[in-house]
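Field notebook, page 614. I keep forgetting to write these up properly, so this time I am using the form the group agreed on. The chain and the ligand, 5-amino-5-deoxy-1-O-phosphono-D-mannitol, are recorded exactly as supplied. Prediction of the bound pose follows.
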Amino acid sequence: MCGITGYIGYREACPILTEGLRRLEYRGYDSAGIALIADNGGLNIYKEKGRVSDLENSMAGKDTSGHIGIAHTRWATHGEPSAVNAHPHVSSSGRFAIVHNGIIENYAVIRKNLEQKGYVFRSSTDTEVLVQLADYVASLQDSDTVTVLQKVLSEVVGAYAIALLDREHPDRLYAARKSSPLAVGIGDGEFFVASDISPIAGYTDKVVYLDDEEIAEMHCGDSLHVVNLANVECRHEIITVPENLGKAGKDGFDHFMLKEIFEQPSCLTDCMRGRVDVAGKTVTLSAVREHKDRLLAAERFIIVACGTSWHAGLIGKQMIESFCRIPAEVAYASEFRYSNPVVGSSDVVIAISQSGETADTLAAIELARSKGAFIYGICNAVGSSIPRATDTGSYIHVGPEIGVASTKAFTGQVTVLAMLALDIAKEKNTIDDRTYAEMIEELATIPEKMRVVLRTNDRIASLAKMFTYAKNFIYLGRGYSYPVALEGALKLKEISYIHAEGYPAAEMKHGPIALIDEEMPVVIIATHNALYEKILSNVQEIKARKGRVIAIVSEGDSTVSAIADTVIEIPETVECLDPLLVSVPLQLLAYHIAVCKGKDVDRPRNLAKSVTVE
Ligand code: M6R
């Protein structure tokens, strides 16, 4: 989703800002722009619809001088993707330029008021009201820029992360946030602003994360000055972030998504490092140790998440209920936040998010907290908003995920959920020693078994060529495999734009079976587990209607293989860990079909990596 970067210091700003925009590309966007206060004091704005490379081409040969600037990648919410609607937006007087992430909910009222005062708006965005209102407030009395911002931001309802240039103070960069993340990088005589750490990485490892309703003023030679809307000075601890945080390359793979699929064995090893001890036969999460009383007293777990993270939650629910014998529910964060849920102090809410910035998940956390629940976060992005908003939690430690379609984060989330369920179950004495030991041994074998699954890559690539014709796909699974079917269908939809539905296999006969004919590919998860015989019947039902069955089966399976059109074999594991292995061929199938169809796998249309608006 939208990305912000800003710079003030001794270096040329433009190269730093364009590099920052490139690093933000993974979030998904449709237009980009830069504002620079030039060496001659002029304000230069460059904006283009399309890619950052289009913006760079449009700037060739123009004045890109200056040591201060702001830049933005936009993902359209209000107004179509276009150069006019792209940020930065400039106030009518030409004094202020702004970039903004988030949504100003009362923009229509503010815009109408300003139009009545003679302000002419150029764009259809909600953002433009911020900069025009700043102009208006500044015109009323001679206030400094921070005071202007305090007045403007006190009037707006909604979410914002902004960076602002003021031509009357060309030696100062301003930034502020509410419900949308913003980090300030502190270098030696220079400052960086960014909506996530990636544009800052490599320039400085000293970072301050602004809190809601705070305004930062950056002036070279001074220390960072932060006040809130009530003008109270805010002191912040400067955090040192790991040097490689936010930097990632494709390492020879054609796409980040493929690289991330292949990274999964080593990512899961990292995820389990220091937590799963095979020799000592223990699983330990530090958050469980630290908050044991609170977690063991939980009468119910409520998992809130969106998209792929929600699918991981469905698997986590089954693990928690089966090992810990505590009721668990899974809610879409976007529904939970508006549902007046029955939540109380005996509940533990688990918020799952790769990015740690998903607006709906953050809002669900706030609602649950207001009702007294204890909040446990499972996130990937270190230092992001959700880990900071939760009472405790566990990082999945799978490294930056750049491909918009989530892959390694999903398997990392499922792995953490397995460890969480096992650790709590052991503490509660709801798991027998044999099962606990078997789970630990199996967890430790998953990375190696995943490597075996990855060897199917070439076969799946050939198989994919046969399915580029398809307009629809059905994915079926039961029990632990049902959420994997949902996830497989989501992967295909996201990157190939083929319509795909995931169903619990037994639900087919209640309606969707009407869709089956010789054109319909059906991916069915039929590994050896408690429901194997049942799923076998479901395969028969599909074949009886001439559906084209692609079955994921356990190594050595001959029964399903005899009926299905194609089978992909994977190693056996315990049922609840099956999703970790089954999801890999489904990721590869989606990837190769999308590649065959010539789609932009890492940056699919309309999608954003961090969904920071609701
Ligand atoms: O960062 P989060 O895990 O909170 O993101 C949630 C969803 O937006 C995300 O999983 C989305 O569905 C992915 N594009 C799936 O590939």
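OBSERVATIONS:
- The first helix runs from residue 13 to 24.
- The domain at 256-453 is CATH 3.40.50.10490 (Rossmann fold).
FOLLOW-UP: compare against the apo run.
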